[in-house]
Amino acid sequence: MALLEIRNATRRFGRFAALEDVSLTIESGEFFTLLGPSGCGKTTLLRMIAGFEKPDAGQILLDGRDLAGIPPEKRPVHTVFQSYALFPHMTAFDNIAFPLKMGKRPEREIRERVSRALGDVHLLDKADAYPKDLSGGEQQRVALARGLINRPRLLLLDECLAALDAKLRVEMQIELIDLQKELGITFVFVTHAQDEALALSHRIAILNHGRVEQVGEPSSVYGFPKNRFVADFIGHISQVEACVKESTHTHLRLEAQGLEIIAPPLKSAAAGEKGIFAIRPEQVRIGHDELSELRNHFAGTVVSVLYRGDVSEYKVGLEGGASIEALLPNTGRAFCVNDKVCVGWRHDVGMYLHE
Asked: What's the rounded Cα separation, in Å, for the pair 118 and 263?
């Protein structure tokens, strides 16, 4: 039995459906991420799990028990908010101890458990510091320790890394992974940052307009998106309008804006239908005339270059109006805007997506 089961949950605000018939299962010990653009319903779903919002329809079950009617403070769930919500007049120790004091735990137990929690988040030397004296990352770890002090069945994390700078954010991602692995507590994480979701999660649910578009492991949703929204939302991807000319068990032959593309097979694709050919920039090679061994290779012109430090991202315009993005490590050859180039990719990469 799944630890958390969401059955056909719906939440409306007037005529606006924040969530529409959402069903998900989350396993014990999982790092599960709700990912999607602003307004897709992910925070509303998190608030429903926490008990701050009530579903208009459907059920939320924890360990098989319906949470309907159970107030937030009675649920074995804790939420860490983007703002951290630390008490400014309390030290790190007292902030973490607050849930135990509210539960009237003995002083000795409080000291032992808070010290252990401070050790878990590597803040033993900051026990007497106030929030104003802590860095953003340290405040975040205090909030995490407070959320974990009662060993909840679920820890809900609502955009909790959003306020950190890029370098600290990466450091905290690693700490979150290590902490979750060490404690074995189920994390449900909300973010709109695709790279963060891919880095942290065991599984990801992608939401759009209150509905679940796809659920799967990071490699699955990135490498095998189910539709155009998921393909476009997760990472960078080139999309070219295409018509299926031939569909066999070994390949698809597509006509795509004047190009003939050989793509991986898709059982549901039929000759004559229209859709999209999509391919990731890292799957595309770029060069001059040395790509003829690839079944898909086309001449084009560099339209734009984005320097990203370790790699550069090239957008190449092809005959017929299609454009393809390619990544090239910044370790040797480089191209400039208006250079004549060739782009190519293997026949077994990329994907055809229905319209």
From this structure: 53
Report domain 236-354's class.
mainly beta
* Mean model confidence pLDDT for the chain: 91
Distance CA 262, CA 253 (A): 5
pTM tops 0.85 = yes
State the CATH architecture for 4-230.
Answer: 3-Layer(aba) Sandwich (3.40)
Hey, where are the domains in the chain? 4-230, 236-354
CA-CA distance, 323 to 208, in Å (whole number)? Answer: 26
pLDDT at 96: 93
φ, ψ of residue 43 to 5 degrees: the values are -70, -35
Residue whose entry in the numeric block shows the structure tokens 């929204």:
229
Q: Per-residue confidence at 132, pLDDT binned at 50, 70, 90?
A: very high
Distances (CA, A) of 133 to 91, 92, 95, 108, 130: 10, 10, 14, 27, 5
Q: Which residue has the tokens 């803040």?
A: 123
d(CA 48, CA 70): 11
- Strands (E) in 102-237, as ranges, are 154-158, 186-191, 203-208, 211-216
Q: What is the largest CA-CA distance in the chain?
A: 75
- Cα–Cα distance between 48 and 46 in angstroms, integer? 5
The distance from CA 139 to its chain's CA centroid, rounded to whole angstroms, is 23
For 228-274, the pLDDT digits (tens) are 999 999 988 999 999 999 999 999 999 999 999 999 999 999 999 99
Q: How far is CA 52 from the centre of its chain?
A: 23
Element (H, E) at 186: strand 186-191
Nearest to 80 by CA among 33, 163, 142, 147: 147
Residue 88 CB neighbours (<10 A): 8
